[in-house]
Amino acid sequence: QETSKTSSNKKPKNQSTIKAYDTKGTIRLTLQRGLYHYRITITLNPAYPTTTTNAEWGKPLLLHVQSTNFPSKIETILTIQARELIRRMQDGMPRREAFRLSNPMKIPRHLEESFLDAHAAKAKTEFTVRLTGDAVRGLKSDIQTLSRVRDLRSIDAATTQGNARIKSHHAKQRKDARRTIHKITDGEIAKDAATEAKDKAWQIEEATRNAGYDVSQFDGSNPQPCLLATVTFLRDTIQRLPQEVCPVCRKLVLPTDPDDLTLLYKVASSGGKDKEERTEEEKKARRVARGARPIRTHCGCWYHHKCLNLFM
Length: 312
Fold this sequence. Notes:
This protein has 312 residues and is an alpha+beta fold. Helices cover 50% and strands 14% of the residues. It has helices spanning 2-9, 72-90, 95-102, 113-123, 133-157, 171-210, 227-240, 258-268, 280-292, 305-311, and strands at 17-21, 26-33, 36-44, 61-68, 159-160, 163-167, 294-296, 302-304.
């Protein structure tokens, strides 16, 4: 009897359901493919598709994962991408553009080399100054440095009263003052170059984040309805994932049984043991488990870890 119960529980199902609770303003979505399932509750803001308070800004929908037998790393990728899709559409982005930019595993167009090269050429003529805490501290340090250089120069240039040809300080003192000025100058040049390089790197990073994201256009004043887009994304992605085929070995990326997939992550973890404490069998089992774990590339394809290593 126990065997029959277990087999019935492990029977593949492809039934997905969606239930709406009007009085609570929630939707319960259950997505299932084979033995894998993903259950989530979607709570709608009373003012959907917009929001009513700053604390809820960007959250016209709240996603709460109730249960899933996908490993936490895979579940996190799916849920975060759905939440990013909601946030960007709340800001006013069209569905297609919001999906492209919310994909954490796919390189958007603004990260491609052509954009970075174009921005680098543009950055030669355009440079925005940031007033940060480090910049303010740097200004204070510059003032102190300039004051010290002024004092050192006065040592080198000071003359006795009534005779401009006679120096007030000995030759060694003046020489030491000049050497110190050169050292300070070289140090300040190197420091300024490092600061400028850091600021330029920030400029490129900031432009990378904002490229294709017109702040003046997507400022939240024209939020887009995102419920259908979110449900469609989760449905298409989660129901397709158990059927994804590894491009290298042409086998299913995920095991048919979710318990086998969970076991791969458990075996691949350290289990609290240091490297020296593991036996050879445990080390071998970890290598095999890690090789069989699924991994997603920037193009959106799923591979076995060992297959991707072989392909690369």
